[in-house]
Specification:
about 650 residues, alpha/beta, Spore Coat Polysaccharide Biosynthesis Protein SpsA, Chain A, Rossmann fold, seven-stranded parallel sheet, 24 helices, about 20% strand
Amino acid sequence: MSDHFCPIAFSAPVSKPRVSIIIPTFGKYIYTHFCLAALSKCEDQTSFEVIVIDDDPTSDTAVHLREYGNIRLVRNDRNLGFIHSCNRGASLAIGDYLVFLNNDTQVQSGWLDALIWTFEHQPNPGLVGSRLIYPDGRQQEAGGIVFRDGSAWNYGHLDDPYRPEYSYLREPDYVSGAALAIPRDLFETMGGFNPTHAPGYYEDTDLAFRVRAAGYRIYYQPSSRVLHFEGVSAGRDETSPRGMKRFQAVNREKFSQRWGKELEGHGERGEDLERQKERQIRRRAFIVDIYLPTPDRESGSLRLVNLFALLRELGFKITFAAANLEASEPYLSYLQRQGVEVIYRPYVKSIPKYLKFKGSEYDVVILSRADAAVELMEVARRNCPNAHLIYDTVDLHFLREQRLATLTGDPATRRLAAYRQREELGLIAQADTTLVVSHVERDILARLAPGANVRVLSNIHHVPGSKTPFSDRCDIFFIGAFAHPPNSDAVLWFCRDIFPIVISELPGLCISIIGGDPPAEIRSLASKHVRILGHVPDLNPYLEGYRLSVAPMRYGAGVKGKINQSLAYGVPVVGTSVAVEGMHLEHDQSVLIADTAEDFAKAVVRLYQDKKLWENLSQSGIRVMETHFSFNAARQALDDLLIN
């Protein structure tokens, strides 16, 4: 047992771990101890086994590690070198994925979950690498670049690791073998690390090129953070005749000879690093909204992040900015993990200044919602000469204000609606294309702006369908963020004028009101029949367990995400004419529509009790979602706009 460190005991391994973590060592017991200590404390959810390959038969490392609990310790009887040790560890692994981890690393919480998430959520993954950070906080590597001569560069070396350009998932030329994940069956198919690069260096680069040549993608995942004491085992001097580092130059030549044809398309060393860091990208989109998307809180944000996914599928790199350059968590990391570059303060202080220097790089610029577009339309037109300039209305703000003015009779609201109309029509006139979310709004603009290029790109949803039958469901719910005034009005009207009629017929019924930041007048509605839940991160229990959804909107515009979400899960909806506008829904066929309190209450009672009606509306609603609001429908709209 060590005089300095108590042995570490990992939790008992599961019979079939998701991951086998392979740690090759050559002496340096102290570093190996702290590597294992960090690994034991990371608290990731992904199950793993630990395989330590001790490649130094003369050291006392194995003597110490024998007392560590629940690791698989393998001792080579002679020095095999880094590559052969890694391959030997892989041959003993039982996990679905292999993670090669240098013994001079210290993993950070969430590192392993982020790697495996990438395999589960990104297209055609073959190899995923971590963000490597020096112990002093500077960046070691954010994915690697290989130049035409075969030399390599650790992108972002010695810089601030949290700059926007280093902090989003992307496809580099290679990722470092210091913290690298690959499916076990793919590694076996590849024949492991190439022994021609033994004892080490360029084995990770060569593996990346072979994996890519086999049709897979290489990802750098910045959410997987690993501290790396670079050079502890191998040193840093390439000129030393006895040091391990000398093999870097030797193996660079081997690599260049093998991959010379592939490298002909690469740039010279140091040339245009921002392009070379993701050479697979051919088109670039810059997108601005009034705030960082919050897809778990409001439907416009959900539509936007799903739009990001479709644009990436079409080959675009996405750069996003909130109009105020905010970068709040967890939404920043959510976007970065999925491959969206987000620019933010203090690294970018002004969007106009940013576009002055970067605007010519973009092929598409999307300004989302009028408040963002009015500030940046002229700036984008001036500084993005190569871009297709798109104004994404999300909904027609002036239409919403007009309907509120009609509802209340307020002259000030009517004046605001007229101002909003002039503003939005001006933006439409300046844009190359305007996006609306429904054919109804497209038809309105056809009258008001007859020369404009207006396209429909509606809400975008996955459509999982219903898993719970009518008889196993109970109660009703409303979804809507209360930062959006029509939602407060809808809930107040429902609870004061409609729900008393409903519970006179269904006295045991309860409604759950779901939505962030409910104001005091909404909270005051709470009772034994009315549950005010506020923000709910996971809607699945409600979408899978409640019988129906209500959308009692008295004014508004656009397409209502609350209805989309319900229908996508097969939950029938009772809504007003305003609520279902532009959604391709028909009364008594795919929705129940009612515009007075009495009719709305009758519709809720009828649908709640009529199993056959419920089942018909559930199935029809799913069909409407698949036809008009699915990823396939949005993909076709984007193809027509950006490709054809």
